[in-house]
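Input/output pair, single chain:
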Amino acid sequence: MPSPQSLMLSLGVLLSVGGVLAVWYAGQRMAPLFLFGLMLSLGGASMLITGLCIALRKNFQVSVPGHFLLHPRTGTRYSPHQALTIQRRLDRMRREMSEDSVTRAEPEPPLPGTPPPWDMEPPPSYDTVMKSQGQLAPQL
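Output:
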């Protein structure tokens, strides 16, 4: 006994081809045959698409429902116990991260009240600098 999806695929192809042939033969001369062929081809196409969807849906395997990180890479599988342990750990880490962002608001460091005392000697005055530069520069 053939599987339902292979039966739908085969029947869909046959109906589509029969409908296209009826539309091609009828052309514009025979409207009832043209409409019958159109309906036949549309029905065949819908059966073909349904058969493909059923065939593709059967091949999808999700090993662990839940978090997308728990869907293993090809060739690896988590046991249900491992998946549950990993899920709990991820949830705990997520809770800790959300608590850190809510409870810890870092205050800005206070500005010092007075500037630190000046330990170096004061800079020379403007007049002193200009006089020393005037002595070093050659006069034209």
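The radius of gyration is 42 Å. Helices lie at 4-26, 31-59, 80-103, 126-136.
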